[in-house]
Write a structure and sequence with these properties.
The chain is α+β, with helices and mostly antiparallel strands. The protein contains four helices and four strands, in the order βαββαβαα. The chain is globular, with a radius of gyration of 16 Å.
Length: 106
C-alpha cells in the first residue's frame, strides 16, 4: 500500500507598507534586528523601497535600501509563516525597533 503523502501547509502571501520613523533611519542596529526577526520565520521575506527589492533576511542587502526617516518600505513574505512574519516585522518597524533609539538620546 503506498505511503500517504503528508499534507503540506499551504504557502501564504502577505504584504504590508510601513514608514521608517526613526530619525536615524534604518541604520545597522535596527537593520540587524529586522534580519534576525525575519530569519525566525519559514517564509521568503522581500523588502522594497519602491526602487530596489532586497532579501529581508540578508543584512548586506537590507543596508542597500539606504532607508532614511520617512522612507516607505513594502514588506512582502511568501511561505508557511508569511502572515505572522509580516505582522511581526511591521510591529518591529513601527513600534519596537525605534524605542531603544529614542531612549538612547536621553
Amino acid at each position: 500500500m503506498p505511503e500517504k503523502e503528508k499534507a503540506q501547509p499551504a504557502s501564504q502571501v502577505s504584504e504590508v507598507s510601513v514608514e521608517i520613523k526613526n530619525p536615524n533611519g534604518l541604520h545597522m542596529r535596527p537593520a540587524m534586528q529586522f534580519v534576525d526577526l525575519a530569519n525566525r520565520f519559514v517564509a521568503d521575506v522581500r523588502v522594497s523601497n519602491g526602487q530596489t527589492v532586497v532579501d529581508g533576511k540578508s543584512i548586506m542587502q537590507m543596508s542597500m535600501l539606504a532607508a532614511t526617516c520617512g522612507t516607505k518600505l513594502t514588506i512582502k513574505a511568501v511561505g508557511v509563516d508569511a502572515e505572522r512574519a509580516v505582522q511581526a516585522l511591521k510591529d518591529l518597524v513601527e513600534v519596537r525597533m525605534f524605542d531603544s533609539a529614542a531612549s538612547d538620546q536621553h
